[in-house]
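Hi Y.,

Following your request, here is the sequence exactly as I used it, all 195 residues.
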Amino acid sequence: MNKIRLAILASGSGSNAQSIIEYFSGHDSIEVACILSDKLEAGVHARAALFDLPSFTLSDEERTRPGLFLDRLHETRVDFLVLAGYLRRIPVELVNEYPRRIVNIHPSLLPKFGGKGMYGDRIHAAVIETGQKETGITIHWVNEQYDEGEVIFQATCPVLPGDTVGRLAERIHQLEHAHYPRVIEAVVKECFHVH
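Below is the corresponding structure, written out as C-alpha cells. Let me know if you'd prefer a different format.
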C-alpha cells in the first residue's frame, strides 16, 4: 500500500514540524512528503534539511493563485495538509480540494484568542493580560475563515501567577509536541480508513 502523504505548512522555526516529522519517521502508513513555507528565511527549511525532506517556499504568485498552489500539491502527490504555525489564510479552492483533509493547531482554547493576527506570543500576552486561569491548544479542521473550523481536540494547561509570555509559550509547546502528531495520525487514519 502507498503511504498517505502529508505536506506540512509552516511560517516559522518549525519546532512543531520537526516533532511531526520525527513522529512519522518509519511509520507504516503515513509519511511527511514535503514542507511548504511562505517565507524563504523560515527556520523550518533547515529542519527539513536535517531529514532530507524537500522543502519549498511558495512564491507570492503561488499563494495568491490557488491553481498554482494546487499544482504544487499535486506535483508532490500530497493527500493531507497539516498547518504548523502557518500564518496565511488557506484559499477556499484548497479547502474545497481537500475537504476535511486540512488540520491546524492554534495555541489557545478556541474560540478564545483566535482570528486574523492572533498567533504566537500575541496570544500568550493576551491570555496573561486578560487574567485567564487556563489556556491550551486547539487542533481543528481548516475552513476558509481563520480559526473557525470544527474543533477536533483541545488540551489545557494552567496560567500560573507571575507567568511570562516565554514561560507560557514553553508549556504550550510541550502540549503541542505531545498531542499534535498523535491527533494527526488518528484523523488521517480515520479519513483514509487505515487500521
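The chain has seven helices and seven strands.

Thanks again,
Q.
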